[in-house]
Amino acid sequence: MITLLIADDHALFRRGLRQLCEINGGFSVLAEAQTGQEAVALARQHRPDVILLDIRMPDLTGVEATRIILDEDPAARILVLTMYQQDHYVQAAIKAGARGYLLKTCEEETLFSAIQALHRGEGWLDSAVAPRVMAQLAQTETTTPFRLSEQEIETLRYVVQGADNQTIADLMHVSSGTVANRLRVIYDKLGVRNRTEAAIYALRQGWATLDDD
Fold it and tell me: How confident is the model over 146-196, as pLDDT tens digits?
């Protein structure tokens, strides 16, 4: 069972989200936090599989809490769940290391899919913000001292299009385990931590575009 930590300063929302995740989603909520500092402390104590974190909270913002949590536990999987869809919030969360960004207006099945994706080690960007934000981040020039193989670049192209590991495996006629291992190698080469950062890197380098077939 996937375990969760919910961090949000609105008690009513936390309770509703907890019931939704436990009853409808089949997840286990280990703890709830109402401030950024509580989120950091409870993440340290419980080490949940996925952390649902609001962007605006007392004491520490979601971005600040994300940085601290990941400094202590680089394997932590953080899904920012918020009402804010402004570009600077999304970019700040991604750069801090959040693996997902989802709006509170989403359908419950979308929330469950995002949680499951993060648990698999994948990323998730809300469809309302993904194309615009990724295109903006891709405008920043960067260089890489590493050379990727043709297979690794092809894998990144599918990642940019939002394909999960199994879909990539089917398209490339390999196993999903091979895709997972290949992605880990790519992350190490590029110095990134997740699919979202890898996709942004690929866009910056011109290895892929958002309208690839």
Answer: 578 889 889 998 988 888 899 999 999 999 889 988 998 888 888 787 888
Residue where a domain terminates, one of 129, 155, 177: 129
Q: Do 110 and 39 belong to one domain?
A: yes
CA distances from 27 to 113, 130, 159 (A): 12, 26, 26
Domain that holds residue 197: 140-205
pTM above 0.85, yes or no: no
Q: Which residue has tokens 């934000």?
A: 133
Strand order in the sheet with 3-7: 28-33, 3-7, 50-53, 78-82, 100-103, 124-125
Domain boundary among 109, 129, 149: 129
